[in-house]
Amino acid sequence: MAPTTMFLIILLHLWTIITSCTCSSASRARLASPKFPAILIFGDSTVDTGNNNYINTLFKGNHYPYGKDFPGHVPTGRFSNGKLVPDFVASMLRIKDTIPPFLHPKLSDDDILTGVSFASGGSGFDELTTVASGVIPVLKQAHYLKEYLVRLERIVGEKKAKKIVKEALVIVSAGTNDFCFNYYDIPTRKIQFNISEYQDFLQERLKTFVKELYDHGCRNIAISGLPPIGCLPIQITAKQESVEDRSCIEDENSDAKTYNLKLAGLLPKIQALLPGSKIVYADIYKPLMDMINRPRKYGFVETKRGCCGTGLVEAGPACNLLTPTCDEAAEYLFWDSIHPSQAACEYLAKYLEKELYTNNSEAYFM
What we know:
Protein name: GDSL esterase/lipase
Signal peptide: 1-20
Structural class: alpha/beta
Strand content: 5-15%
InterPro entries: GDSL, GDSL_lipolytic_enzyme, SGNH_hydro_sf, SGNH_plant_lipase-like
Order of helices and strands: HEHHHHEHHEHHEHHEEH
Number of strands: 6
Family: Belongs to the 'GDSL' lipolytic enzyme family.
CATH architecture of the domain at 37-237 and 247-285 and 347-356: 3-Layer(aba) Sandwich
CATH topology of the domain at 37-237 and 247-285 and 347-356: Rossmann fold
Organism: Ficus carica
Strand order of the largest sheet: 1-2-3-4
Distance between the termini: 54 Å
CATH class of the domain at 37-237 and 247-285 and 347-356: Alpha Beta
Radius of gyration: 23 Å
Largest sheet: 4 strands, parallel
């Protein structure tokens, strides 16, 4: 074989190897690229990663034993023993491992670029929900989004900032406090509305909130429905005649299901009014009821009491350094009398990731 021919064969072989490696690297890069550049969170204590630490309220989770299973075993302001659903979602979508609160005084540029939580524990869509507690109403959280946009523009410029927000995943989780604080436990709104009217009242406020998010550039929005409110340990304790009776309050669960049906029907109508938006319903009722009805499937031994204290009433300041906790929080659906444990949050995140962010879902964002 002529030397020139041999040289060409060797050169071609090397080119094939280089091209193969380059394509393989590009393929890996595509796999590692997240679907969303950032994640933005709004709502109540189910998604508050620490904003209440920085406002004047008693509704805080910045003390032990909150955070006992969080990386570093430190209380962060999350109302859980560890991570929350949005933390797990952000990790599953390869955005980041945990979501910082927007009010944290030492946010890095990367924190801003990849998203924050604006949520506030104890919040709701109804302005009455936050009057006594002093927490941040959901509608006011949209005002903080304006401040976020200013900071984002300082880092990457106006054009890039708008692109990030447009492509970001937005999660909204609120409503439970509205019913508990204003209708069931303190019946302020019950004087004005029957239950159906109050559901509609809240969803009108939700509609206003979503429109404001849209006006600020958000396009991919997931709205969480209500959980089975009547199965929250604190609601069972408040409504059942006997402490030993830990059966769910069916009227409250029925109300939650009706609200969710209305919400699932409303969101496509809102989407139709907002060109270019994708607004989807996130069902948390179904997976939580499955955990309650089939606890062994998830490794739970207790689903009607929280891990903190007696598990009947403790939450927030009542779940503190002096309060004993269960040995294995992962065996409890609820961490305190209101909030899911880290284990339950992880199961919920996996369910939502499967339902909302995969190609097999009708609600797929991309």
